[in-house]
């Protein structure tokens, strides 16, 4: 982290956040100027039911998907503050966590829980209220709801019921990590990678076998878009995940680990996966929310060299050389340059089709 970045993240939170609270209550003079700007842009800004220019009108009925800070409270938007103050209630992933945010900005709107364990039932309840004309905001603990967090089901239910759904954009860990990773830059030019393409995969499976199967499938697919793969990962699993990436994509695979984004101890580790893993392994512990990014090389077409499925090759060897299935699978794995475990999982996938 450079000196300027560290200084930025070490700003006195109390002073800067107090300024945000003051800014949230915009003066009448400022309101006049903003209204003028809206009028000069074909009234598109002013005509939106949730526009700043229309702040003196009641907030329009509907569902508001509100992004909240991922660590630095200065990242809250003025629109998010106004919406959270104006809705009838706020559906929260964790009411206790959201209440800290609301208390800081002196927002008194009632809250209700909305998390992965009650999402289906609560979505029906909220949809009923929305159809009756309610104004409801959905927030996650941090970041954008519906992105690796609850929010998708209620949005779909609202749309199905003909209720307007309004995105209130803001902080997002995946995009924040990507733009500062260097993977989306010109350094990828000429490498066969698409510098502007990326795929977000959320959290990898927590179980080792499922996680490796997911990563192996990504390698087998060959990254056809040639872009960056983005994952969220828990701090207590990051070393195991990096070990899997190293085993499947090779020790030289370049990765970026973004940790504690927008917080005081924000950190980016960039380099070969084996080096990044060793750096983290040398620490007493790894803490904080993590985003993992890497861009695998675009795989060459190997269909000509491996025209038959693993299952077919195993059957052929068992018939022609009277091998046991286990021995035949070892032979096939060695010929394909695969690990035995990977070959076995692929065999099971083929048989499950």
Structural write-up:
With about 350 residues, the protein is α/β, with parallel strands linked by helices. The chain folds into three domains: about 10-35 and about 60-170, Tetrapyrrole methylase, N-terminal domain (Cobalt-precorrin-4 Transmethylase, domain 1, 3-Layer(aba) Sandwich); about 175-295, Tetrapyrrole methylase, C-terminal domain (Methyltransferase, Cobalt-precorrin-4 Transmethylase, Domain 2); about 310-350, no CATH class. Helix content is about 45%, strand content about 15%. It has 15 helices and ten strands. It has a five-stranded parallel beta sheet with strand order 3-2-4-1-5, with helices on both faces. The chain has a five-stranded mixed beta sheet with strand order 6-7-10-8-9. Mean pLDDT is about 80; it is low at about 1-45, about 190 and about 300-305.
Which SSEs are present, and which pair or pack?
Layout: H1 3-9, H2 13-24, H3 28-39, H4 44-47, E1 62-66, H5 78-86, E2 89-92, H6 95-104, E3 111-113, H7 119-131, E4 135-139, H8 152-160, E5 165-168, H9 173-181, E6 198-203, H10 208-221, E7 228-233, H11 238-249, E8 254-259, E9 267-272, H12 273-281, E10 290-294, H13 310-321, H14 325-336, H15 340-352
Parallel strand pairs: 1-4, 1-5, 2-3, 2-4, 6-7
Antiparallel strand pairs: 7-10, 8-9, 8-10
Helix pairs in contact: 7-8, 10-11, 11-12, 13-14, 14-15
